[in-house]
Each structure stands twice: as C-alpha cells, then as structure tokens.
Design goal:
The complex is a heterodimer of chains A (16) and B (251). With 16 residues, chain A is mainly α. Chain A has one helix and no strands. Chain B contains eleven helices and three strands. Classes of the chains: A mainly alpha (16), B mainly alpha (251).
C-alpha cells in the first residue's frame, strides 16, 4: 500500500 | 455492474457507450477545438534551441512532470469507467500501472499534427527535435510514428473514448486478483466498440485497433527501458526531483 501512496490517494478522492 | 446479464441489452450497451464517451470528454486534458485552433502555433528556432540546450536530466525531469500531468487525467478517466471503482484497490492500481501510459500514448494522437509531424507540448507544437536532449531519439521516433498511425485511422472522439477504455480494462495484466470481473467489464466494452463501429459503418477499424495494442505495449517497454538507463546515470534526479506519481508508476 505504501508503495502506491499517491495512486491510492488519487483513487480514493471522489471524482470532481 | 457485475450482475448485468450477457449478452448485454441494447439499452445497457448504449448507456455504457454514452458513459464512456462522457468520461473521456470530461477528463481530456485538451479539447479538440482548442488543439485545432493552436495547430499552427509552432515553437520558434530560439525556443527549440532552448529545449535542446537543457541538460539530459533537466529535460527528463521536465518531461516526467508533463507525463505525470497527463497520467492524472487518465486516472480520472479510469475512475469514471462504469465498474472500475467496484474493483478492488489492488486491481485498480494494477490496471493503471500497466495501462495509464498506454492511454496517454493513445490520447497523444489527438495532440498530433500529421501535416508537419508536431505534437502539442508546453502550449505549442514541436517536432522530435524538441526532445533531442532526452537522449532517446529511438523512443521519440517510435512514439511519433505511433501517433501518425493512430491519426491515420481518423477515429471519432467516441471511438477514441471506447478504445482508451479497452486499453485500460485488460484482463491479461499480471497480478490481477479478480480477473473474472475485469474480464466481464472488458467483454461489455468490446460489445460497445463493435456496436459503435457497426453503427458508424466502420467495422474494418476493429482489427486495426486491436493491432495497435501490441505496439502500445512495446512502446511502454521502451519507455521503461529508457527510464532504467536514465536512472542508472542520474539516480539522484529520479530519487529527489521526479514526481512521486511518476516513480510509483514506472520505476
């Protein structure tokens, strides 16, 4: 999970 | 989503098509009309010289930032593909790690002017000479050739949208946990593409599009190969100044 921190965050953000 | 019957109903196909087209339109970095209007805004000799005078690591960093921006739009596109957010996080990441660069390359053909072989970059159009200081001329030529061949297909924005979703939703990617679910999504997208091409009376495009998939994969391997070469020469640049998302995806 740590390895893809930014991707995780981008995926969790709701679509704007 | 996973409970949709197969074959999907015409209504479901049309709704899925509309949804993919909308997602593509809403997450495109540049609008087609905007690109068309800027088509002849070329870099001057001096500007080209300035790019060519950058050091290898400066230019790599610059391009890594631009590429990362393009990838972020692809992530948004993925999130809006019906069913994508229902996949586990691991599978969402797997599909993006292997497919986001491929989609960037497909989308790049929208930013390409075949009349003078230039691409929209940093607000103007430039040819491969702009990227000379990267030190990977073969990759740039291959990417430009690919853009040329994509443009030759003259896809509509709707066809482009569908093709991008097919590139991303690929059940053959290694390390997928729920391959069956990705496979079901892919199957419905394929039905959508066939439906769209049939409607447009352009069925011959289907085979040509599937042929592009292997070219995309070889371009992405070449990119990773070049990055490996670069990171051995400039490990500190990659480590300290490259965008974190770029590193997560490609290193």
């Amino acid at each position: 999970k740590e390895k893809h921190k930014i991707l995780h965050r981008l995926l969790q953000n709701s679509t704007s | 989503y996973p409970y949709c019957p197969y074959p999907p109903s015409l209504l479901h196909i049309e709704e899925l098509c509309d949804s993919i087209v909308r997602s593509h339109r809403d997450t495109s970095q540049f609008r087609l009309e905007e690109l068309q209007a800027l088509r002849w805004k070329l870099f001057s000799r001096e500007e080209i010289h300035a790019y060519q005078s950058k050091s290898v690591d400066e230019m790599w960093q610059h391009c890594a930032v631009r590429l990362t921006e393009a990838v972020q739009y692809v992530v948004e596109f993925a999130k809006r593909i019906p069913g994508f957010r229902g996949l586990g996080q691991n599978d969402q990441i797997t599909l993006l790690k292997t497919g986001s660069m491929e989609v960037v390359l497909v989308r790049m053909s929208r930013c390409f002017n075949t009349e003078n072989s230039t691409v929209f970059f940093d607000g103007k159009f430039g040819s491969t000479e702009l990227f000379k200081s990267l030190g990977c001329g073969d990759l740039m030529v291959a990417v430009f050739d690919f853009a040329h061949s994509m443009c030759a297909l003259r896809l509509t924005e709707q066809q482009m949208a569908l093709f991008c979703s097919l590139v991303l939703i690929n059940p053959d990617r290694p390390c997928l946990e729920d391959r069956g679910r990705v496979h079901r999504m892919r199957r419905d997208l394929e039905v959508c593409l066939s439906h769209m091409l049939h409607r447009d009376n352009q069925e011959s495009l289907q085979h040509k599009l599937y042929q592009k998939v292997s070219v995309l994969q070889s371009l992405c391997s070449l990119h990773v190969e070049k990055l490996h070469w670069f990171s051995q020469r400039y490990p500190l640049t990659v480590h300290s100044v490259f965008p974190p998302l770029y590193k997560e995806l490609f290193t």
